[in-house]
Design brief:
Layout: H1 15-26, H2 29-36, H3 40-54, E1 59-62, E2 65-68, H4 70-91, E3 104-109, H5 111-128, E4 133-138, H6 147-150, E5 156-159, E6 170-178, E7 180-185, H7 189-193, H8 198-203, E8 205-209, H9 221-228, E9 234-239, E10 256-259, H10 260-270, E11 272-276, E12 284-291, H11 298-311
Parallel strand pairs: 3-4, 3-5, 8-9
Antiparallel strand pairs: 1-2, 5-12, 6-12, 7-10, 7-11
Helix pairs in contact: 1-2, 1-3, 1-4, 2-3, 5-11
Length: about 325
């Protein structure tokens, strides 16, 4: 693969950023051309230039169309972040009118946060900023060590406080609180008994969201709670989603920790029991995190106020 140890921005055709984003999104040259607003040969030519630049095919044809190469998969998230930052840069103004602005905001959050805030935020935007664009990027794994750097290129992240976020340049504001509860199948003996003991939690098998491979450090909140309880969980199912947890608890003898707001939403329809933790778990505080470079941006100030407002009555 061709390497580019030093590439000067002035020597790059930045139009290729948009082409790269749409080609990786669509995995189809014709559809990418339509989204960019160019002809199919022009999109093919852009793909050729990108292939030469990266020394990689990026898109590889198979029986069902095109698939992304490993490098293209790596580039996919990066180009989304860079394009969002560029769009934000060129739409920055000294004032902000939410009623007419077409500013795009990018937020990183877990599916649990979407369950709690999503509908409220959507309704508020529809009412007060109908032309604003919102890009929600979902957390796919435990927050990585480069999360603090990632926030420089997005408008914000909603997450509980962890030590790696306490770095110069990052600011935060509390949005809402919650608490941990245990969820089990409604027919589980512990559910019928109506409570769990510490001994139950130590012997039962677990479903754990964002649980890392053995030997890796993690910022996964549920894993942290079990560690504080002195429990080394027998994790039988690992998922990259809070919303997926109940699906691997129902109909089994497994147990999981879940945020109460989410547990209350899913317990009845899915046939789950919600029980208090026998130990004293830490409270959950969800915060909005942003980089201080956006402190004086009027649009960002409005976004922070909007998120705080829709969270106030939770």
């Amino acid at each position: 693969m061709t390497r580019h140890p030093s590439v000067h921005l002035a020597n790059l055709d930045l139009n290729l950023l948009v082409a790269l984003r749409e080609l990786l999104r669509e995995r189809n040259v014709t559809r990418a051309a339509a989204r960019i607003g160019v002809t199919q040969p022009a999109a093919s030519a852009a793909l050729g230039r990108l292939r030469r630049h990266f020394g990689d095919d990026l898109l590889v044809r198979n029986r069902n169309g095109y698939v992304l190469t490993p490098l293209a998969l790596q580039l996919a998230d990066q180009v989304e972040t860079v394009c969002a930052a560029a769009e934000r840069l060129f739409t920055t103004d000294s004032s902000f009118d939410p009623a007419s602005s077409r500013r795009q905001f990018t937020l990183l959050m877990a599916d649990y946060t979407v369950e709690v805030l999503g509908a409220r935020l959507s309704a508020a935007l529809a009412e007060h900023a109908p032309r604003v664009e919102l890009h929600i990027r979902m957390v796919r794994e435990a927050f990585s060590t480069d999360a603090a750097e990632t926030i420089r290129f997005i408008d914000g992240m909603i997450a509980p406080p962890v030590s790696r976020f306490e770095v110069p340049g990052l600011r935060s504001a509390d949005l809402f609180t919650d608490r941990w509860v245990c969820v089990l199948d409604a027919a589980h003996p512990c559910a019928e008994r109506g409570h769990l003991t510490p001994e139950d939690m130590a012997r039962l098998s677990w479903v754990a969201p964002f649980q890392p491979d053995p030997g890796f450090m993690t910022a996964a909140p549920t894993t942290r709670q079990l560690t504080l309880f002195g429990i080394q969980p027998d994790v039988r199912v690992r998922v990259e989603s809070y919303r997926a947890v109940p699906h691997f608890v129902v109909g089994t003898d497994r147990v999981a920790l879940l945020q109460k707001r989410l547990a209350d939403l899913v317990a009845g329809p899915m046939g789950l029991a919600v029980l208090p933790c026998p130990q004293d778990p830490e409270p959950i505080t969800e915060r909005l995190w942003w980089h201080d470079e956006y402190d004086r941006d009027p649009a960002h100030q409005w976004l922070r106020q909007m998120l705080t407002s829709v969270s106030e009555d939770l």
